[in-house]
Amino acid sequence: MVKLNSKIPEGPIEKKWSNYKDQQSLVNPANKRKIDIIVVGTGLAGASAAASLGELGFNVKNFCFQDSPRRAHSIAAQGGINAAKNYPNDGDTVYRLFYDTVKGGDYRARESNVYRLAEVSNNIIDQCIAQGVPFAREYSGLLDNRSFGGAQVSRTFYARGQTGQQLLLGAYGALSKEIKKGSVKMYTRHEMLDLVVVEGRARGIIARNLINGELERHAAHAVVIATGGYGNVFFLSTNAMGSNVTAVWKVFKKGSFFGNPSFTQIHPTCIPVHGDFQSKLTLMSESLRNDGRIWVPRKKEDVARLKNGEIKPKDLSEEERDYYLERRYPAFGNLVPRDVASRAAKERCDAGYGVGETGLAVYLDFESAIERLGKDVIEERYGNLFQMYQKIVDENPYETPMMIYPAVHYTMGGIWVDYELQTTIPGLFAIGEANFSDHGANRLGASALMQGLADGYFVLPYTIQSYLSDQIGVPRFSTELPEFAEAEKQTKEQLEKLMSIKGKNSVDHFHKLLGKIMWEYVGMSRNKKGLLHAITAIKELREEFWKDVRIPGEINDLNTELEKAARLADFLELGELMARDGLDREESCGGHFREEYQTKEGEALRNDKNFTFVSAWEYMGEGKEPKLNKEKLEYEAIEVKQRNYK
Amino acid sequence: MDFKLKIWKQKNAGSKGKFVNYEVKGISSDTSFLEMLDILNEDLIYKGEEPVVFDHDCREGICGMCSLYINGYAHGPDAAITTCQLHMRKFKDGATITIEPFRARPFPVIKDLMIDRTALDTMIQAGGYTSAKTGGVPDANAILISKENSDLAMDAASCIGCGACVASCKNASAMLFVSAKVSQLALLPQGKPEAAERVLNMVAAMDEAGFGNCTNTGACEAECPKEIKITNIARLNREYFSASFASEL
User: What is the CATH number of domain B118-248?
Assistant: First the structure.
């Protein structure tokens, strides 16, 4: 068994990262030219890493399944990016950002990683400005900030409601510069389908060229996984249609441990589900909670009158409305963390106070903000979000409150990595949402962009050298090695098997069924009985899928159904692991809410004595139960308390 | 709602394509355009036929991957949205809808409605960035930028790189796309040091990729899902002329 070594550096928390950098091994410029690195994914983490490694002089191969690196789903992040700049003079510090992040994650993140994240957060903002990212500014010409959930300071930098887009285009610019220079070779419309391990080290990948269906072998001295999260296991989520777990799942099956797979973030403010044909859910940025107030009717009669159109939301007076977040959490009000806001919405809807057609929605109301600030200010802050809402729902949010409901958004779980972001396979690294490391059991708003760019610009380019420094004498690998042939053969066999089933039902048919199981039993609230049921139901569904899926077209051609089927095959295995992890963790923490473990007021009840650890699951082979390894979490710089946002 | 669909089918870049007629029935008016195509594709799969291939990813109007030419308009008849944000309520029940790929010589068809837009990346690689490397940059607030210029830069930077401007232009010009990036960086102090080289290199890359010239018809602005303004093209021209004169001295 691999012994989990998180490699946390010595010293007090504020010195760990500089101690690490003082002592780490580096690769000299002449040797960097001899080393190849594969980066899979071109989102904030992947693009920033590929560009930065190229600048340092390494030879980089960068892969994405989209037609251009600029389309990775980081592009859709709306609200902002956190940094401890303290420009508003409201008392922010690196420690406070660190503290808020660990607390927001309900004390299930690794302290040293989070502190480093807070430490480099300011460099990210500087870097983006140098790239020409047009962050919002004040009339003074200085940068503007806004507030986000889980914080009492304004530390979020933003570019209208398109912050992810602007940050990604900044990283894409840096990447384009390196592609032009020749240090990065870009492979678009390519999907990684397996990892190649040679003598225990990650040495390459098998990728499918999505245009002609050919399998390709690519070798390197190290491989970096930056393929994002796995929210699409729920079928409906705010992720892009193509977002998938395949790269992450394949490296898990090759020996990388999977950290906290059940930790899923359900985002409180999304446009509610409206029909069976729906293909994805659209997020309405958390930033809206700065000015929007969330409520449902206080009386059930009013719920009924709203539903049959007798009255409009506007007709209800202040006294007839229940601003339940302000009522339950006066200190943070509408800006409580996402997990808390999502559960509170579910609680009201389950109790019969939900609005809209299905009763699964709450109001997000801008009436008082428009009165206070004027329509122009609201339009400047949220114009594109209001437009997006209007196009989808066909209602004008300037005049009637938005309707929102929680939806799957982000996965805190991911590949287990140590302080150097290296997985349990030497030479294999994981960055951004694909790893598990910084957000514990719940991620705070505007922290995903921060983590993706921190990993790619300022952490991995240092830490990967510690591994590569003893690889400089290793010559380039030939893709003729038997390990490459074997990995390619297995991939080919899996695809052939899928094509040969020729069953009755489509890929989406199975994916929707999986999504229903996941949402019902492994979603916003979970219990033992449901999780056990989910494990069995997913197994049955998986068997059914392998007997009955129908994939038209050819294997050696562009085949979008085959792409979807291969991804779903992995989701069908992942779902079971998520349920298993949720079952094992007999406590509630952050986004993981076990109904059996709650306080009298219905808040998450942690069990620190028995569960202050990271679940690191180990693949034991086909048909065998995965093994649970534990990384004990130790808190030295922070006092572990029950989260309180009241 | 029921619709008759006339969809462009083409096996690959080398083969000739043609329109094929399909029908979809019982579509809810809340269905998005791409969800309507999902429903058609599910139907086709169950009938044992190959689904229609089209590009799409985020389905919330920001990734720029979807690229359909619907009833003669890039991203369809509604203004200021991408194809994925278009809803069936914008069409009349029983209508015939014609669906084609974005057409332009630098955007060859890969299959059916899917096209190759690598040329857009190539133009950015020619200089659509600042050359700042990671690390060693000044504090973010060290250089003041007027809110006005910052807002104008943001307007230009909103471009999602979908190529609707090219598809809508009778000359297949990429001027709006190139000018959006040139403008964003010309408006900001961080982009100034390389402004002249940038505009010359990007325009040269545009010509080399085979995009046509701009004749100021404004079709690109009208069809742009992010409402990028042609004043950016005027700014590009200004930048281009001053850079050309300077390089001749």
Answer: 1.10.1060.10
A602 Rama sector, left if φ>0, alpha if ψ -120 to 50, beta otherwise: left
* Amino acid sitting at position B13: A
Give the domain extent around A323. Answer: 269-406
Q: Please tell me whether residues A402 and A486 are part of one structural domain.
A: no
Of the candidates A176, A211, A553, which has its C-beta nearest B129's C-beta?
Answer: A176
Q: Is residue A461 part of a domain?
A: no
pLDDT of residue B67: 95
Rounded Cα distance between A229 and A436, Å, is 10
In this predicted model, what pLDDT tens digit does every residue of A548-557 receive, in sequence order? 999 999 999 9
Q: Is residue A498 domain-shared with residue A401, that is, in the same domain?
A: no
CB atoms within 10 A of CB B57: 25
Instruction: Name the active-site residue from A110, A321, A338, A643.
Output: A338
Q: Is A526 left (phi over 0), alpha (psi -120 to 50) or beta?
A: beta
In a domain, A308, yes or no: yes
For A23-75, the pLDDT digits (tens) are 999 999 999 999 999 999 999 999 999 999 999 999 999 999 999 999 999 99
Report the chain B residue with the minimal C-alpha distance to residue A50.
B134
Region of residue A248 (phi > 0: left; psi between -120 and 50: alpha; otherwise: beta): alpha
Question: Domain boundary residue among A406, A437, A471?
Answer: A406
Q: In CATH, what number is assigned to the domain containing residue A550? A: 1.20.58.100
Residue A411 vs residue A152, higher pLDDT: A411
Q: Where are the domains of chain B?
A: 3-111, 118-248
- Residue A613: phi and psi, rounded to 5, are -150, 165
Chain B touched by A479 (CB under 8 Å)? no
- Asked if the structure places residue A496 within a domain, the reply is yes
Q: What is the assigned CATH class of domain B3-111?
A: alpha beta
Report yes or no: A143 at the B interface, CB cutoff 8 Å: yes
What number of CA atoms fall less than 13 Å from residue A613's CA on the CB side? 16
CATH number of the domain that residue A290 is part of: 3.90.700.10
Question: A504 and A397, same structural domain?
Answer: no
Residue A621 lies in a domain: no
Given CB atoms, is A556 within the 8 Å cutoff of chain B? no
For residue A1, pLDDT over 50 is answered with no
Q: Rg of the Cα trace of chain A?
A: 24
Residue whose C-alpha is closest to residue A130's, from B130, B197, B124, B186: B130
A576 with A540: CB under 8 angstroms? no
Cβ contact B60–A394 (<8 Å): no
CB of B148 within 8 Å of a chain A CB? The answer is no
Average pLDDT over residues A150-162: 93
Indicate if A160 belongs to the active site: no
**Partner A contacted by B76 (CB < 8 A):** no
DSSP A507-550: HHHHHHHHHHHHHHHSSSSB-HHHHHHHHHHHHHHHHHHHHHB-
pLDDT tens digits along A163-174: 999 999 999 999
Across the interface, whether the CB atoms of B30 and A275 are under 8 A apart is answered: yes
CB B190 within 8 A of CB B132: yes
Return the residue in A82, A85, A177 with the most chain B beta carbons within 10 A, the one to mutate for interface testing: A177
Shortest Cα distance, chain A CAs vs residue B16, angstroms = 17
ipTM of the complex: 0.98
Statement: residue A622 has pLDDT above 50: yes
Residue of A nearest to B115 (CA): A67
Domain count for chain A: 2
